[in-house]
Input
Amino acid sequence: MCAIFGAPDKSMLEVLYTANQSRGTFASSFVQLTYDDQFVMKKEGEIDWDNVKGSKQSNYNCGHVQAPTSAMRDWAYETSHPFDTMSFMVFHNGVLTNEAAIRNRFLPYLENPVDSSLIVNLIQKFMEDDRTKGTNPVTYIRKALEECQGSFAVSIVDCDTNELYIARVGSILHYNDKGCYSTLPGKNYKELKEGEIRRLNKKTLRFNKVGEFKHESPFLFL
Output
C-alpha cells in the first residue's frame, strides 16, 4: 500500500504527507521540481521535515509514502519511489498484474524487481522508439499506460521540462484547483476519472485534461 501526493509549496506538501502516512511509513520520498532540475530525497521510514531544506528555486513538490511490498521488504534507494530514466520520473500507487508480460515483451533487460519501475521505462522506450522525436509526451504516456493492467495511480514528471502529469486506473487519486493531488482526499478535492491524463498548468494551478488512454478497470470484474 502506498500514497502519492503533490503541492506547489513545501508547507502544503508536508500537510499532505501527514494526511497520507496511514498508507505506509516503510519508506518516504520528497522531490522538488525547479525550473530545470529535480531535487530528490528517498529514505527509509519517515521524513523529519525540520531537517529538510530542499531547493530555494523549487516551483513544485511531490511526495510518496510506502508500506513494504512483496517485491521488496528491505529498503534500498534503487527500489524506492520515484523511479526515473533519462527523461521521465514516475511515482506509483497500485499493483500491475501483467508485470511478467511487460518484462518479456518490452523490457527483458530491466533487472529492477519493483513493478512500478516498468511504467517509467515503458514511457522512455516509446519515446526512444519514436523516429520523429517530436511527438507530445502525452503520446508516450498514453502508450505506456495502455500496456499496464491491474491498478495504478501515477504522477509523471517530464524531466526535460518539469511538466507534471497525473493518471489512474483502479487506484484512487484526487486533485483540486490549487495545484494539489493526493491519494487520500481533502476538502474541495475531486476524484480523477479513470483513463484520463491531466497536466498541471503552473500558472493557473489547474490540472487540465490533455488526453485519454484505453483501459480496463479492475472494478468491472468485482
About this structure: Residues 10 and 61 are 6 Å apart (CA to CA).
